[in-house]
Amino acid sequence: RPLPHLVHDLVQTGASAYGIGHAVSALADAATLRLVELAERRLGPPPVPYAWMALGSQARQEQTVRSDQDNALVIDDAYDPVAHGDWFARFAALVCEGLADAGYELCPGDMMARNPAWRMPLAAWKETFGRWIRTPEPEALMKASVFFDMRAVAGHAPLVAELQRTVLAVARGNRLFLGHMTGAAMTHRPPLGFFRNLVLIPGGEHRHSLDMKHAGLVPIVDLARLYALDAGLPPVNSRDRLVAAGEAGAVSASGAHDLIDALDFLGLVRLRHQARLLAADRPPDNYVLPEELSPFDRGHLKDAFAVVKSMQAAALAAYRGGRA
């Protein structure tokens, strides 16, 4: 189990959440590259150029020990489904199943290259993104939150670069789309009550805990994506997006700085929690009990949640006229 040991050791040596995310994601990239090589060796050379595209947390280089796989294939427009479809179907299945065997769980929502819906020529991808942006329905917004985080891992990288350029150009400053994206992002709110008390999960398996992923980090990831799309910024990593957004004026310099501090701190709280579970030979999760934290860390946690709450309110005012 090299990955859990790596994460545990990096946390123990004081590495940052940003650095750990890059290290863990680099391992996923290396596994993907090797599986792509093995699949091509087995099937023969690809009939037309393609790019293997990481999505979600791997694309953002924010993976942890508990990340599943999200990926897709962008194929050259010379693609002929009759002549080439079987090769790419077999290829995608080999790589996705190989990743599952290596410990990267299959995506529960089937957002993977082995799904024919996410294996398309470049022109079809451009049309799909254009449709999501022009008609931002709930399902499109849910997919957009994964697919707008894209990065080439193997194959012909310029295919992904061209797709990203096109998507950023269409999304940039599109107030209708950005307003809907903001509304969708507000489904994840920081667990901070009116009197700065921590609002814990009331019942179920994780009762009396804090969901550090969905209530802590996802709201920041969503805001960073929103700013990047609004300003047409190419970075994909959330911290890099916030830095670029602050420099471009998509968000105030102080707002970007505060969100970066919150992202760094919340990411480290989650990783320390996962490292404690790994040291106890327990499966890592995202649910932190407040009593695990020192009074100092609990205070900083409340400060971080307050920053996110304030920046979400500012985004609502800017993109939706204050309406959730």
From TrEMBL:
Where do the DUF294 domain residues begin and end?
Answer: 176-316
Residues of the Protein-PII uridylyltransferase N-terminal domain: 3-139
What span is annotated as the signal peptide, if there is one? none
Q: Which InterPro entries match?
A: DUF294_put_nucleoTrafse_sb-bd, GlnD_Uridyltrans_N
Question: What Pfam families has UniProt attached to this entry?
Answer: DUF294 (PF03445), DUF294_C (PF10335)
Gene Ontology molecular function terms on file:
[protein-PII] uridylyltransferase activity
Q: Which domain of life is it from?
A: Bacteria
Protein name, as recorded? Uncharacterized protein
Q: What is the lineage of its organism?
A: Bacteria, Pseudomonadati, Pseudomonadota, Alphaproteobacteria, Rhodospirillales
